[in-house]
Write a structure and sequence with these properties.
The structure is a homodimer.
Chain A (H helix, E strand, L loop, with lengths): L1 E7 L2 E2 L5 E5 L3 H5 L7 E5 L7 E8 L9 E4 L1 H6 L7 E6 L6 H8 L6 H12 L5 H11 L6 H13 L12 E5 L9 H10 L4 E5 L9 H8 L6 H11 L1 E5 L7 H13 L4 H14 L4 E8 L8 H17 L3 E8 L7 E2 L1 H12 L7 H15 L10 H10 L2 H13 L11 E6 L4 E6 L1 H10 L9 E4 L6 E2 L4 E7 L2 H13 L3 E4 L3
Parallel strand pairs in A: 1-6, 3-5, 8-11, 9-10, 11-12
Antiparallel strand pairs in A: 1-7, 3-6, 4-5, 4-7, 13-16, 14-18, 15-17, 15-19, 16-18
Helix pairs in contact in A: 3-5, 4-6, 5-10, 6-11, 6-12, 7-14, 7-16, 8-13, 9-16, 14-15, 17-18
């Protein structure tokens, strides 16, 4: 066991622990350390080591020869201050890695196996390549449905679990990939106005033009403390906040940091990811929306059905009351795409304005209706009508205003973006298809979600009749460079195909 | 496309490309970059981008807000100088990644598929996690034998191929895992003394107490330029050099940098790795040694046979004349373990000293005999006797001395190591087993291969009779700390089991 002085290196290595050692450090050659080796670091008192991947440094300004550097995330896990003495050793592979080898060899793993793996992952004992090995072993039908169940449970158990102290806590989740699909911001006020508990945490956009948290942020603060959320939910029965800071199913975040760049098709992993987060967030009743369409995440009815069965199975085994609806994912929902434009759509529906987007309103009512029917007092089939009544009577709007006030209202002037460009129909005919991916891409190029006002405003939807030079949509941008990129991209491929009546 | 100023960051990230961006760099948020994203960097003239994984920096001493940093390896691939203007963009995944997804899904890949993947890997378009995905997809019987062939060919074709200008170039390879097994240093002088061409490149130890290159380095320089190797081989028909710098099957080195820490059991990958290196090194005739034993890499005769068939199949398809021998891998070969001690064994055999280790001599003669029989003029079955004659007549020694002289003789005084400790037999009986792994571990703890004189000297071998307190072996170390570690480890587990006659 050899000692060095601890130093924090101000490099953000995200979900991977990295340590830095100078090439002329006496330990480097004598210990046979090599770049990308895994080492374990202890403070000599605490018995649990921090594990990190080694990078070798040739610049004493970054790290001196008697120092060991830790990246920001790694430093924060280590019980020690700068300049304290640290002990460094070769790390032994995490003991659960043999289970990963078993999985790769095609064996079935049990409940405890998944728990061991998740415990090692959550304690940062896995490097990125070890996590990849686990994910690839689980990908493409590598998990049987019981294994998906075990993985879900293991991800829940290796994190915090929220308890709202009530027998019924409802939630919803959409499989995603549909721009503009801001049903959550209508469902929460409708359901909470009925008195059901819906503490909704949402995500920010990562690859999409806006996440629910980004859009809600146009209207209110979304970065709230757990204790404030508890107060809001007591008073209003619901909120719409960003879920990023709670330590719920933390293994999921680590797995996703590797899975996303790989674009792995791992159904089992996706189901475990969604359900573990919901269970950890304290949900007892969950509605899942699977949109199907050629440019949606799920492309065929057959795939959607298979997915539904798996969700139902895991739901039943974990005592989560779970319903799945399969919806039309052939085009964006609503007109606005990008935070401010989507918030505008939501307010139009809540205010029952005549020009409010009908598809957003109808989909939200259908989904809210299904959630309302979780209430034993609501008669089967009556949820939709109840939801419509809650919306059209203005009670949902009132509830939303109260929630916004408690979360912290943002005063938004829905002003026009700095730069605007209309994309025109190149010919007359009917809109035969709208490509969700291309529309999302153009909206992101225009600056969404970073620039709240940036995005796309759709004027024409699927199956609409258009004349040549009718405006299909307007691109909104705040900066000229972004504006030009988005314009060029739309000119190359508008995302719309126009043809005969279908 | 946005521009930044290029800076070299003196961090060694080994086989992974890493780029550094300051968190306050205007590009960071506006482009939606995130730590661990892959970006592509161009100089605006050259069309081929360099791909790197992004780390985010919070310290302007490491990287300023208008700069893009590249790690040492990445910088060396980039056509540009410090402070030049670079263009940065999100990297699209390498096009061959869809083939990796196909492989993971259980599909068979063709020759061109493996070539596409290897081309992307050799051009650093794969991140570590993408390489892991490929390896895991190929692991545990994931490759059929034709796929192993395609992968071998693709790894050869994506690197340099040496041509020695002769119809017969012989080589040997041992599957490894047996400490002390320095047959190469006897086979090369014997075979070269017969006049056959044997340009032998060897590896340094990575996890073992010594590689052939480490042991040869005790006697001569091993880090030689390709042109010098050409001269030596013309004059002496053979050499024993370090193979690390030639650009032979470079994909293999990249794959191994990921495979090793994962400890993946990937037979197909191992075969492709060995054969691609040999074919690229210009070998036409190859002898492969598969030692079998409970603590060897291959543990059963059955596994060894399966491996032999695969080697033979790929050899035949690639016009490599290939022979496989299955040998006794139940214990170390020779007495010395560690560079200097092994070099001493080799010299004892070459000098025909009476106390030379018999097992090392016999195994080397057997293997050299098989290689000599590749010569059409050598009668079948006579190779062993020819090899023995070449050794015992002193011609092999003369050849070795000539080779050492040309490579650059190192004047070694075979002096005793600073610290020595004898491990004694705890009881009387017969040696029932010797654990290769534990013996290798203790030798490494003692300082091998970094300290040339460190290691283990075996006095008693398998099936030998011992009395209580007889010395089983002596630990040699140059530094007290290493010495204590090795001693403690040997006291805990000597690696020897002693029992009744078997």
């Amino acid at each position: 066991m050899k000692t060095l002085k601890l130093r924090k290196v101000a490099i953000d290595t995200y979900k991977e622990n990295v340590a830095y050692l100078h090439r002329n450090c006496p330990l480097y050659r004598s210990e046979g350390f090599q770049a990308l080796n895994k080492i374990e670091i202890t403070n000599g008192i605490d018995t649990t080591p921090v594990i990190a991947v080694l990078n070798i440094v040739d610049d004493e300004k970054i790290i001196a020869t008697d120092e060991l550097g830790l990246s920001e995330q790694t430093f924060s896990q280590f019980k020690g201050v700068e300049n304290c003495t640290v002990h460094v050793n070769h790390a032994t592979p995490p003991s659960s890695l043999r289970l990963v080898h078993k999985k790769i060899a095609g064996n079935r793993l049990g409940k405890n196996d998944f728990l061991n793996i998740c415990e090692d992952i959550v304690n940062n004992r896995y490097s990125k390549i070890e996590i990849t090995a686990f994910l690839v072993g689980c990908a493409e039908g590598g998990l049987e449905r019981d294994e998906i169940l075990y993985l879900t449970e293991a991800m829940v158990e290796t994190g915090k679990i929220l308890d709202w102290g009530e027998p019924m806590v409802v939630d919803k989740h959409c499989i995603g990939g549909i721009p503009g699909n801001r049903t959550t911001m209508l469902i929460v006020p409708i359901v909470a106005a009925h008195g059901m508990l819906m503490p909704k945490t949402s995500s920010r956009a990562i690859t999409s033009p806006s996440g629910t948290a980004d859009t809600m942020e146009v209207l209110a603060k979304v970065n709230l403390k757990q204790e404030d959320l508890g107060t809001i939910v007591q008073l209003q029965r619901g909120f719409i906040a960003w879920g990023g800071t709670a330590n719920l199913a933390p293994v999921d975040d680590i797995l996703i940091s590797v899975e996303r760049p790989l674009a792995l098709d791992s159904k089992g992993q996706m189901i475990a990811s969604i359900l573990s987060k919901k269970i950890a967030a304290g949900a007892t009743h969950l509605l899942i929306d699977i949109p199907v369409g050629p440019t949606a995440k799920v492309q065929t009815q057959h795939d959607a059905l298979k997915l539904r069965k798996l969700f139902e199975y895991i739901g039943d085994q974990t005592n989560l009351e779970l319903e799945v609806i399969i919806t039309d994912g052939r085009q964006p929902i609503g007109n606005g795409i990008g935070p401010t434009l989507e918030a505008r759509d939501v307010l139009q529906v809540l205010h029952n304005e005549p020009n409010a987007p009908v598809d957003l309103k109808e989909k939200s009512l259908q989904m809210a209706g299904r959630i309302l029917e979780f209430d034993p007092d609501v008669r089967g089939g009556q949820g939709y009508y109840l939801a419509r009544d809650l919306l059209e009577s203005g009670r949902a709007l009132k509830k939303m205003e109260d929630i916004i006030m408690l979360q912290g209202k943002h005063h938004t002037s829905f002003k026009t973006a700095q730069f605007q460009y209309q994309v025109l129909a190149p010919e007359s005919g009917y809109v035969n298809s709208i490509n969700n991916l291309q529309i999302a891409h153009i909206a992101r190029m225009a600056g969404a979600p970073m620039d709240k006002n940036a995005g796309i405003d759709l004027h024409i939807k699927l199956n609409d009749k258009v004349n040549v030079n009718d405006a299909l949509y307007t691109i909104n941008a705040e900066f000229n460079a972004d504006f030009q990129f988005a314009k060029t991209s739309a000119q190359k491929n508008s995302g719309y195909t126009i043809g005969g009546k279908q």
